[in-house]
Amino acid sequence: MPDYPTIEACIGNTPLVRLQRLPGETSNTLLVKLEGNNPAGSVKDRPAISMIAQAEARGDIQPGDTLIEATSGNTGIALAMAAAIRGYPLTLIMPSHMSDERKLSMSAYGATLVEVSQEEGMEGARDLAMAMQARGEGRVLDQFANPDNPRAHLTGTGPEIWQQTDGTITHFVSSMGTTGTIMGTSAYLKQQNPDIQIVGLQPEDGSSIPGIRRWPEAYLPAIYDAARVDRVLDISQPESERVMRRMAAEEGIFCGVSSGGAVAGALRLSAELENAVIVAIICDRGDRYLSTGVFAGS
Question: Residues bearing N6-(pyridoxal phosphate)lysine (predicted)?
Fold first, then answer.
């Protein structure tokens, strides 16, 4: 019988495609990596399976253990898939204002969902996860401090981008939430060519963009190293949503709000550069944002 792969083998090796219309007349090449093509629909599939597999390998978790994680959505969906693949009960804690599609997807994979208020936000979700662990209710994987998060991008996303661009990449653009994507990918790319510029995106004050955060100092992810990011751009919510809608209507790429922000950042860079090869991460697909109404804007 053929050695058929499992769904876990389908994580990674996502396409890298060229933008055709949004860049306009330019000597630059703008490329986007379609992480929505992962089985659970986002870039978070990579660290989700990495955190569980590596914890198993170290003996930190055992079959039957309950896993706990605070999430704004994509990591929760990815972990729900990964826990289902590997057979672990999972409790996810998220702010109540996240989209219905995200909540329903987590439940579909069999996860238990606990909500905190919008005011408590991700900080409150993280605090509750740690309190539950302290009460013996399960094991927190902690994407914000877990080195297996960026390691997934050091061994996967970074090498893929390097190979897919034949080593010609000059700029890498990524939204920053837990910062695992930008930390791991930048580590690999800088090893190959220290001149590659790493550009991170954070929301402007007052903007609420799913998946992108401007963390209070006390909650800054422990995996984040500011020295590994050459430049940080502030992105507004209206700009992210506008570019997100243009990606669907003009490029045929149906993506989420943080991905619109990443492409907006790439377009800003392109206006400053010549003969550059700019790669931006498309974190997820747009279908998990339909209920929020963001695609109905102008």
Answer: 44
The candidate with the shortest Cα–Cα distance to 165, out of 148, 199, 188, is 188
Task: Please indicate if the annotation marks 74 as binding a ligand.
Answer: yes
190 belongs to the catalytic site: no
Q: Confirm whether 258 is a catalytic residue.
A: yes
pLDDT bracket for residue 297 (50, 70, 90): low
Q: Which of 42, 174, 258, 259 is catalytic?
A: 258
Q: Per-residue pLDDT tens for 121-161? A: 888 999 999 999 999 999 999 998 999 999 999 999 999 99
Q: How far apart are CA 255 and CA 202, in angstroms?
A: 18
Amino acid at 153: H
Confirm whether residue 178 is marked as ligand binding. Answer: yes
| pLDDT for residue 1 | 77
Q: In 29-44, which positions are buried (b, 16+ CB within 10 angstroms) versus exposed (e)?
A: bbbbbbbbbbbbbbbb
Catalytic residue, from 44, 72, 174, 175: name it. 44
CA angle (71, 253, 257) in 5-degree steps: 35
Q: Is 181 annotated as a binding residue?
A: yes
Is 177 annotated to bind a ligand? Reply is yes
- Entry pTM: 0.93
Pairing of strands 67-70, 197-203: unpaired
Closest among 40, 138, 148 to 91, alpha carbons compared = 138
